[in-house]
Amino acid sequence: MDDEHRKLIEKSIDRLITCTKFDELSHACFTMNLLSKVMLQKINRVPENQMQLSDAEKQVERHRRLFKKITQRGPDAFNKLCDICAALHYDTALGILRPDRYVSIKSNKMAISSGSMNHCQQNANYINNNTSSNNNDDSRRSSISIDDDEDNGDGAYQQTDRRRSSSKTLDSVSVLQEYTGEICPKDKFEVKRAARILKHPSLDTYPMQSKENRGVFFMVNMINFPVETHRRDGADEDTHSLLYLFKQLGFKLFSYTNLSHEVFFDILGKLLKSDYTKNTECFVMALMTHGDMDDSVQRITFSDGSVVKVKDIEDYFNHHVCENLVNKPKIFLFPFCRGDMLEHGVINKVQTDSIQYNTHRIKNIPILSDLIVCYATSEGFKAHRDPADGSWYIQSFVKNMAKNAHDTSFEDILKNIQADTLKLRTIDGSLQTANYVNRGFNKALYFNPRIWLE
């Protein structure tokens, strides 16, 4: 970092602290390769001479150490910091760092000198320019392609200005519409027809007997990322496999690829308020991307490089927000990494899905219930994906659902999936332990494929 930029940050450090969030900023610095894990550990460590400070004062000092450390980084550190601030919508911070170039990004306006474009806008244009060309490159791709930059995905992401990268395409691509395109998985697992509408002998059973409103399947698959080496090879196979499965189960399909976080939340909000979810008997969401666990907080990465807490997504399903799905079975498929550890105990080279780095209130029910969250791996560990065949977990999920959904409850099918996934090994002996979390999912769920009462 040159002296001018270093002095600017040092002079403005108190103002920068007040207009940025330490947790968001530190995480972005790590995932953008601006700071390493060891550096962040040192920043978070409280010196003995500050132990007497209050928690709030300690946090301010951590924040101060963070900015000071950034000033000690390489020649690209200042531009990376600006990129991060743009991506996190830190308008005031951008005004401090580049007062001659940045206007409020809340209004999607940036004043840029005619002689050059800033680094952040170059990144945004790179993504948008590749979107139009790549949409014509792969006719087999099964879902709407947004911000598709044909990059590889398995390492630290490069943040871009999330509002600029999505604003040009938001009106045209964040459209809620059923998927009706081509579905052609490599392996076609045929779902067996149920003999009758099943009910559990000793538990209540979720109703799954409608022909037209059996279920809604919402899938978002992040394949490409701003950093080329982070492309999730094989992930497109998961898209086709899941679409083929849930079409046979009678679900309405909503499939998207390579979304920014803004477009994702826009589409999700529309879907959860639509007649599709109002009338449906069941809802399934598959979110496939890179994930990481940071300070016990699960985060995932979108194709524009933005990072979002999984809890922020789950909050959209709270009963006081999403009344359409109250008392209905909800399933989340989360096959991403939940940390950076490898679990040891197919001999193939595999990849991992990680990145280093109000309405009226409904009473007397939990804030979120009737939910099963399916994880590909245990907390703290990586999830594996074959570059040719797709995610271990998703492929096992599809195979077992096709084989057993006609006569087996969903939770029992999950146990089979977990057992199958546990048998797989990488070339170095790594494995993964799939699991699920039951959050008030207190009834039995049978999918009853190809049979209905209507």
UniProtKB/TrEMBL annotation:
MF GO annotations: cysteine-type endopeptidase activity
Active site (UniProt): 290, 337
Low complexity compositional bias, start-end: 123-136
InterPro entries: Caspase-like_dom_sf, Caspase_cys_AS, DEATH-like_dom_sf, Pept_C14, Pept_C14_caspase, Pept_C14_p10, Pept_C14_p20, Pept_C14A
Keyword tags: Apoptosis, Hydrolase, Protease, Thiol protease, Zymogen
One of the protein's GO biological processes: apoptotic process
Domain Caspase family p20, residue spans: 213-341
UniProt-annotated stretches for the region Disordered: 123-169
Keyword Protein biosynthesis: no
Pfam family, one: Peptidase_C14
Protein's UniProt keywords contain Lipid biosynthesis: no
Top-rank taxon, per record: Eukaryota
Domain annotation Caspase family p10: ranges: 361-449
Family to which the UniProt record says this protein belongs: Belongs to the peptidase C14A family.
Entry protein name: Caspase Dronc
The species this protein was found in: Musca domestica (House fly)
Gene (UniProt): 101896806
